[in-house]
Specification:
The chain has two domains: about 130 residues, Diaminopimelate Epimerase, Chain A, domain 1 (Roll), CATH 3.10.310; about 120 residues, Diaminopimelate Epimerase, Chain A, domain 1, CATH 3.10.310.10. Strand 10 and strand 11 form a beta hairpin. The radius of gyration is 18 Å and the shape is globular. It has about 270 residues and is of the alpha+beta class.
Length: about 270
């Protein structure tokens, strides 16, 4: 039996159309079979497709939220959570000030923020100092690696924003060596007027079907704790230097990371499955 479901495509962490990271959002009344949700995500062929189900009898959460790449289900996704909240606030008539999601990573919440942005409240996922893996510089195209952190997300700290832009990673070796993907990051470039990001990054996750993710909210749960300590700043303007690019306005407090971003609605309609 064929069913028709609503679908939205939203550019998250996008200050303008055709920037940021596109996510599909599929609101449901109840969960579909896992293999059906995975097939929908593969058909969409975006970094992530989010599925959400209302939980009216759960006093601690408003919706349950899951995310699928074209290949796998993931434990945490920032941009598709941002997109899901924007759909609920601006297209589905959610009346509260804060949306609370249950997820594989626990309670996640999203609220409206200044300048038309939305603010994610995510867990801090600080990495741990680790030896720089042998050959990592070569696998990134010869750029110099200053430090390396292990953890839920592995992170290579490079010498400059130019080095982050110039890196040409060997995606096969990253897929084999880094189960959840690899962040590369550096301090940002400020103009003489003090404008520009505090931190820049790129993120590679070829195992999940995203060779280079355009803008990744979840990895900033690891990026922000590191740079907050290095720069002695609790609030950071971060920019992901993918081809599409995107800006994230982040703050660190009491084991949580707040990540603000803008969204651009691109498309809405229905799918038949």
């Amino acid at each position: 039996m064929t069913m028709t479901l609503p679908i939205y495509q939203v550019d998250a962490f996008a200050e303008a159309p055709f920037t940021g990271n596109p996510a599909a959002v599929v609101p449901l009344e109840s969960w579909l079979a896992d293999e059906v949700m995975q097939a929908i995500a593969a058909e969409n062929n975006l970094s992530e497709t989010a599925f959400l189900v209302p939980t009216p009898d759960d006093g601690a959460h408003d919706f349950s939220l899951r995310w699928f790449t074209p290949k796998i289900e993931v434990d945490l996704c920032g941009h598709a959570t941002l997109a899901s909240a924007a759909v609920l606030f601006d297209r589905r008539g959610f009346g509260g000030d804060v949306i609370r999601f249950s997820s594989r990573s626990g309670l996640l919440s999203v609220s409206r923020a200044a300048a038309g942005r939305f603010a994610l409240d995510f867990p801090e996922l600080a990495g741990e100092d680790a030896p720089i893996p042998d050959g990592l510089s070569a696998r990134l195209g010869g750029v110099s690696v200053r430090a390396f952190l292990g953890g839920r997300f592995e992170m290579a700290v490079l010498e400059s924003a130019d080095a982050v832009r110039a890196a040409t990673p060997d995606l096969r070796s990253i897929r084999d060596a880094h189960a959840r993907g690899l962040i590369i990051t550096a301090a940002g470039e400020k103009t003489g007027e003090g404008k520009g990001p505090d931190v820049v990054s790129r993120f590679f996750a070829p195992h999940s079907g995203n060779d280079e993710d355009p803008v990744t909210g979840s990895v900033h749960c690891a990026i922000v704790p590191y740079w907050a300590g290095r720069l002695d700043k609790r609030s950071l303007h971060c920019r992901q230097l993918s081809t599409r690019g995107g800006d994230l306005y982040c703050a660190l407090a009491q084991g949580r990371v707040t990540i603000e971003g803008a969204v651009q609605f691109y498309m809405e309609g229905s799918i038949s499955v």
